[in-house]
Amino acid sequence: MNDVIPENATSAAVRLSGASGPPEAGRRPVVGVSLKLYFGLAATRTWLADVAALKGALAELPRPVDLFVLPSFPALADARELLAGTGVAYGAQDVHWAESGAWTGEVSAGMLAEAGARYVEVGHAERRRHFGETDATVAAKTGAAVRAGLVPVICAGERHDNGLAQAVEETLIQVRAALGGAGPDSEVIVAYEPVWAIGAREPAPARHVRTVASAVRTCLRDHGVRGRVVYGGTAGPGTFGRLAGSVDGLFLGRLAHDTANLRHVLEEVAAATVPAPLPLRP
């Protein structure tokens, strides 16, 4: 496959002032967690049971928040068992673009759907760096996910902290390429994850995230997809409060290994996105 390089990426970067505003009222906030390869199977089961125990806390939130978790492939059956009836969705951290065939070691989107998955992560920076995934690869995986009825969680973000214009340009190239695999009205989530902030001591500055997220939201509208934008990259308790109004939620990593942190984030997201009451008529 050849990389897909969409047109007008540079011009989009310089039109920062023309980016769209905050999320539309009524869009449901969302929090996702990827476990990567930190846990073994037994530890994953324990963590999933702890997440399932958040069912009561989820029901008590002032506004519903979609929560999904992405364990390793062998734990999908455990997720199906332990999360049943909790309202917590689950999915996978990767997918192959082919529906079937001689693809040793790969997992198709259709198989994930059969396993009860709802979401699938595509295009993470680690997949690009360690496994050579390209924009074209991510587009193919996005298309496979959409055709199988899954919601692709499209990871995108600039590699280096070289300013806002470069961040917008690099991120939009990745997002536009991925959306080339999704048809109109597809449901997607874009996880904006500046690579330089992944695993850092602090998340990216709020102004930086707001600007890029706004440009991404315009891109989603231009493509006619039903999309939500979340932030990842050292995200945790306290992050969403600085970003509310510009993103729809967070994509969490190691900070969510402690489900007390996860609960705190869910409460913070719900509280920050509660619609303001309508003024009383005179």
UniProtKB/TrEMBL annotation:
Pathway: Carbohydrate degradation; glycolysis; D-glyceraldehyde 3-phosphate from glycerone phosphate: step 1/1; Carbohydrate biosynthesis; gluconeogenesis. Signal peptide: none annotated. InterPro entries: Aldolase_TIM (IPR013785), TIM_sf (IPR035990), Triosephosphate_isomerase (IPR000652). The keyword Metal-binding does not apply. Its main location: cytoplasm. GO terms for molecular function: triose-phosphate isomerase activity. GO terms for biological process: gluconeogenesis; glyceraldehyde-3-phosphate biosynthetic process; glycerol catabolic process; glycolytic process. It catalyses: D-glyceraldehyde 3-phosphate = dihydroxyacetone phosphate. Pfam families: TIM (PF00121). It is found in: Cytoplasm. Keywords: Cytoplasm, Gluconeogenesis, Glycolysis, Isomerase. It is an enzyme of class 5 (isomerase). Its EC number is 5.3.1.1. GO terms for cellular component: cytosol. Homodimer. Belongs to the triosephosphate isomerase family. This is Triosephosphate isomerase. It comes from Streptomyces paromomycinus.
